[in-house]
Amino acid sequence: MFIEVFYKKSKVQNDNLLKTEAYVDGRWVTAGSGKTFNVNNPATGELIASVPDMNREDVRAAIDAAHDAWQPYRELSAKDRSVLLRKWYTLILENKDELANLMTIESGKVLKESIGEVEYGASFIEWFAEEAKRTYGDVIPAPTNDKRIVVIKQSIGVVAALTPWNFPLAMITRKVAPALAAGSPVVVKPPSETPLTALALAELAERAGFPRGVYNTIATTESSEVGKELCENRKVRKLSFTGSTQVGKILMSQCSSTLKKMSLELGGNAPFIVFDDADIDAAVKGAIASKFRNSGQTCVCVNRFFAQDKIYEEFVSKLTAAVAALKIGNGLDPGVQVGPLISEKGLNKVKQYVEDAVAKGAAVRGGGKEMGGLYYQPTVLANATADMIIAQEEVFGPVAPVFKFSSEEEVIKMANDTEYGLAAYFYTKDVSRCWRVAEALECGMVGINEGLISNAAAPFGGVKQSGIGREGSKYGMDYFMELKYICFGNIQ
């Protein structure tokens, strides 16, 4: 009943994108055990659909199908693979509204953000459709005249993509597009919270014409066992994961048995620094964009705000006013800017971190309360200190703690005082400071006077315990290919 109401309300014309089976070896299938699990709308708690709850045997079949498809698929020309990707890209944009609506009801993010994610996710497919034709090698000067040294790049083999719930579409395309461009079949394992967007992408990949077995998507609540199979199965040559550092370490350990190539995009603790020469209004605008998007549930989301002492009160006051103006509610409703958190566990974590901060001296300048269901008020905490949990751990919710600093040297030390190093942001008008601070921050990505930094042309990834490898950009293809050195000898 809810599905009918949803489609009527959202004016969706193509309900074929709501798939309730997994996609393996070019067929829509159920779990071998017959088990299913429910997918619920975090905004309302209502049932959206039930999908197959697959186990290790099911995922092994998907791996086998991908492995069987590898040889014929990698023999396709780069141009042919590029054409397939372009078709997939076009289909995604043609179905943008349907995909965005589906994403909103299963993830809770507001519709405007979902539409933006579809476009952002599609941009990776467009980018790698072109990069497929640019996987250049090298000719290296040989040490003797009778030899020639050549380096080529080849498809790595079956790629497993383990994706998170906070970006149900873009995290798939960022991993899958370079794999497919390189000539590698894929097995996609979305999270149990948001499998429907992933299955819709598989439907569009099928329509685009990818050969049987090249694109596979499973669904499961048995993440531990299924993940272990993807890590330990020797037919999987590459694993790409976006998620927590804790889970990333487990996967890395499990992949050691096959020495699998890995890309890991893990936890973050992003600092956002506002220097006293900054445009405060621009900094507040950037803060809203980089903190409260998807209710604060993004990997590059700001976790710690630092404002210089001379402008501290001005920044906190203006940020509090901007946060108070945010509209909270169901992501399908017009004008809503902040939706629900993904789960009860996520909500409890936010509550715990705010309570800990207040107990240690933080002042709640705005928000700080539950709103029923999975909703939590966007919150600003002043007088934040290093001993609070939120200073070291990712809150993954709509909470903005603001720390005070005096000097550039002090704030760089504070910003780097974490085991994570994914993204960082700062605002200043001093060009020399831009270079000094950007180079001193220990992270993989820096936004200067900008709160939104992700795009397909830029390498995405972190340092320290925020991960290994990069996705997106011209560098992204290299992580889905193998280098091969060829030596020609006895040349007369």
User: What is the 3D form?
Assistant: globular
Structural class, by secondary structure, is alpha/beta
Low-confidence stretches: 1-13
CATH architecture term of the largest domain:
3-Layer(aba) Sandwich
Number of strands: 22
Topology of helices and strands:
Elements: H1 2-10, E1 22-24, E2 27-29, E3 36-40, E4 47-52, H2 56-74, H3 78-94, H4 96-107, H5 111-131, E5 138-140, E6 148-155, E7 158-162, H6 170-182, E8 186-189, H7 195-208, E9 215-217, H8 223-232, E10 236-242, H9 245-255, E11 261-265, E12 270-274, H10 280-292, E13 302-308, H11 312-324, H12 344-359, E14 363-366, E15 379-382, H13 389-392, E16 399-405, H14 408-416, E17 420-421, E18 423-427, H15 431-440, E19 445-448, E20 463-464, E21 467-468, E22 481-488
Parallel strand pairs: 7-8, 7-10, 8-9, 10-11, 12-13, 12-18, 13-16, 15-16, 18-19
Antiparallel strand pairs: 1-2, 3-4, 5-6, 6-22, 11-21, 14-15, 17-20
Helix pairs in contact: 2-8, 3-5, 3-6, 3-7, 4-5, 4-7, 5-6, 8-9, 10-11
